[in-house]
Amino acid sequence: MSTEITKEFTFEAAHHLPSVGDAHKCSRTHGHLFRVEVTVGGEIDPIMGWIIDFADLAKAGKEVIGALDHRVLNNIPGLENPTSENLAKYLFDRLAVRIHGVTAVTVHESPTSKCTYRPGGQVARPTTVQIGVSGLSFAAAHILVFPNGEREPLHGHDYRVSVSAWIAGNGPDNAQEILRAATVDAIADLEHRVLIASKPAIGHVEVLQDVVKLVLPGDTVTLPRSDCTLIDTTSTATEALAALIAQRIADSAATTDLKVSEVSVSLLEGTQDLVKSTVKC
User: Fold this and answer.
1) Nearest 5 degrees, angle CA 75-CA 79-CA 82?
2) Which CATH superfamily is domain 128-280 in?
3) Which of 16, 26, 32, 281 is catalytic?
4) How many other C-beta atoms can be found within 10 angstroms of the C-beta atom of residue 89?
């Protein structure tokens, strides 16, 4: 299973493009609010349930991207011609030496214009068609437990779900509706629930008639059974949830009907932390 996480950053800077000619508006010095998405790919850690701590990605991103804030980009070595394309590669090269597994950097120069630098490009799928659904969401609470015995307090998020699937070119006309229904089914028991990993990194879970107990060294969290959904995993980190949803869709009858070869789930936790999980069917 392939998984990616993405974190978004912003900075404001001035620049001009020296090679476009005097008649082009971008030859004049001007400014933008740049949005930058940094994507990291890899295997989900079986204990932690994530690829990398979003906090570590945030620290590296602030160090590299923050250095461009309120600057004239042309004056920075390596950005003498600061197009979005060159800027995306510049950031990728500097982030990749700080964070293992960086797969792509996307620079949004405006609300409608963006550039993604991803070494290696994309694999073509000549015999399949991509379909997708978006606009789905669920609200849930969870507790993250760490191997050292520490835990986060019970807290919650809104999660926004987008799904892409690659299907046979001769699939049914209502393929998108079938995929949407499969996605709704996959997230149904996550909505307005406390999500509990049944195999936490430390301690154990007790399921009683009316309550669920998360028993940790020196600490026990007791929750109403009716509020909880138990997930057969070690963590309820966003990576684990995206992988769970992708696998549920891949295992559904809909994938057989649609002859799905690959399912990709993008799960946005809050407003900036995005995870993408892909399952081959």
Assistant:
1) 105
2) 6-pyruvoyl tetrahydropterin synthase/QueD (3.30.479.10)
3) 26
4) 17
Taking the domain 2-117, which CATH number applies? 3.30.479.10
Q: Please, what is the angle between helix 175-187 and helix 238-251, to 10°?
A: 130
Measured between alpha carbons, how far is 48 from 235 in angstroms, rounded to an integer? 6
CB distance 280 to 242 below 8 Å: no
Per-residue model confidence as pLDDT tens for the chain (281 residues) = 678 899 999 999 999 999 999 999 999 999 999 999 999 998 888 888 889 999 999 999 999 999 999 999 999 999 999 999 999 999 999 999 999 999 999 999 988 888 999 997 554 444 678 889 999 999 999 999 988 888 999 999 999 999 999 887 777 888 899 999 999 999 999 999 999 999 998 999 999 999 999 999 989 999 999 999 999 999 999 999 999 999 999 999 877 878 888 899 999 998 877 888 888 77
- Among 109, 239, 262, 269, which one carries the catalytic annotation? 109
Active site residue 115: no
pTM: 0.74
Q: Token digits for 121?
A: 């490009």
DSSP classification of residue 99: S
Contacts of 82 (CB under 8 A, 6+ apart): 15, 17, 73, 74, 76
Residue partners of 18: CB distance under 8 A and separation at least 6: 27, 74, 80, 81
Domain ranges of the chain: 2-117, 128-280
Q: Is 109 a catalytic residue?
A: yes
Residue 281 annotated as catalytic: no
Q: How far is the C-alpha of 236 from the C-alpha of 196, rounded, in Å?
A: 7
Identity of residue 247: Q
